[in-house]
Amino acid sequence: MFDESKKKIKITDEKIALRKAENYCVYQERCQQEVRDKLYEWGLWSDAVENIIVNLITNNFLNEERFAKVFAGGKFRIKKWGRVKIKLELKKRKISDYCLKKAMREIEEEDYSRELKKIITETLKKYKSTRPEVRKYKTAKYAISRGYESNLVWEEIKKNG
Q1: CA dihedral 84, 85, 89, 90 (to 10 degrees)
Q2: Which CATH architecture has domain 9-58?
């Protein structure tokens, strides 16, 4: 039943863990919490974990502001997430308010409005056969679930109604 080949490898040497953590951070931008969780998963003690985190920050392998900006920009451009959803995800990762504000500046207002308009227009078309009020409600529900602010969603629906 238990597959021995998938047994988790425990790392006790701090230097080896540091090299492995550096590679983990080089692969893609990470936040401190992701790295901290990974280090604990490897079986390191809290003193070693904090020493490695400090070392990664000092050598610029780990940068919360940079992570937040890349995360926010990517989730908006690629997944078309709204600000609400992006903020929630960043807060889940324990990103500071300062970095959160910096990250939100990565999303241009014009692009944000254009994307919301596109989502509303496409979703309204999808529900053509239903009654107008149901169509609007379903469209709003969808756009809000994507992380867009409800007041902006309803304004856009009224324009496109």
Answers
A1: -40
A2: Orthogonal Bundle (1.10)
Domain extents in the chain? 9-58, 64-104, 109-160
Q: Are 66 and 29 in contact (CB under 8 A)?
A: yes
Q: How far is CA 63 from CA 23, 32, 59, 74, in A?
A: 15, 8, 10, 16
Distance CA 57, CA 51 (A): 10
Predicted confidence at residue 128, as pLDDT, reads: 82
CA distances from 59 to 62, 66, 103 (A): 8, 14, 22
DSSP 74-85: HHHHTT---HHH
3-state secondary structure at position 107: coil
List per-block mean pLDDT (blocks of 10 residues) for the chain, which spans 161 residues: 59 90 95 95 93 97 97 96 98 97 96 96 87 92 97 93 65
pTM value surpassing 0.85? yes
Q: What is the pLDDT of residues 4-27, one digit of tens each?
A: 555 667 887 899 999 999 999 999
